[in-house]
Amino acid sequence: MRLLSTTRLFSLGLGTALALLSNAALAVTPTEQQAQWNVAARTADPGYMPSATRGKTLYERAFNRNAEMPNCVACHTSNPAQQGKHAVTGKSIAPMTPSANPERFADAAKTEKWFKRNCNDVIGRECTAAEKSDFVEFLVKGSK
Amino acid sequence: MKLFNLKTCLASLLVVAAPLVLADGETRMGLQGAPKSFRTECVSCHVAFPASLLSPNDWKRVMQSLDKHYGSDASVTPQEVQEISQFLVANASTQGSQHVSSVNPPRMTKTSWFERKHRKVPAAAWQDLRIKSASNCVACHTQAAKDSYAERDISVPGYPGKHW
After folding, report:
1. Distance from C-alpha of B139 to C-alpha of B10, rounded to nearest angstrom
2. Across-strand partners of A107?
3. Is this complex scored with an ipTM above 0.85?
4. Is A107 in the B-facing interface, judged by CB distances under 8 Å?
5. Which residues pair with B141 in a beta bridge?
6. Which of B47, B71, B75 is nearest residue A91 as measured by Cβ atoms?
7. CA distance A75 to chain B (A)
8. A88 burial class (0-12, 13-18, 19+ CB within 10 angstroms)?
9. Do A68 and B71 touch (CB under 8 A)?
10. A57 SS3 class
11. pLDDT for residue B72 is more than 70
């Protein structure tokens, strides 16, 4: 077999393409992430549609599980488009609203990591796919 | 033989100056070479706590209970636990017991070194809402976000212009 056979070139090309694609797939948009959550939410509730109002309610609800972090607002403030502040450490937190901060909901792994931690802290459990989609709906569409 | 040799002069200057520069050990504080995960994970919620301000065992205790991290879930991937632990333990202090936490879970604010260094801070200052907590280093150490704790950069809210 020649060193640079067609087969080898093809494999190399395919490998590179796949590598590039897999990296590209990590960068997502809020809408793309919502689409995945919507699919998951519909396995439990086929009629599910994201709701900005439900998202806002979730965001503001005082779960009171944690004295310093009773709700999302405690760190992310009543207006997620502005800078937040960690309720315990005082460290500043960049805005959550994608239009105010394009880094938000642009990395699926990062999104899931922070949902896991913060929902656990505030609510005491992981947020459901429906809750995640509602919340992003609220961030993107605002409250109406 | 020339009386004035430029190379020797420069070398001597370096020898004299080096201790003056390096003696400002209030900078860096064992944070050089931190893995990226240390910054993206740990420093997303609080200032980069200097690795050299706790003992190796204290850091191990912190890293083994990240899901219950001072009231928060701070879990990271197993790989990140490994690389961050490695960094912290390697840069931790092994000088006697001055950096050993007197409490568990470990707190660097509860070491004899920290208490001695902050003995001049008035009790009232710790209650100031702008400071909130002894672990809020940046409230007074204005360059803490750059890992720097040099004395010249200290400014305590409520005590403007005072030298510490």
Report:
1. 40
2. A27
3. no
4. no
5. B154
6. B47
7. 10
8. buried
9. yes
10. helix
11. yes
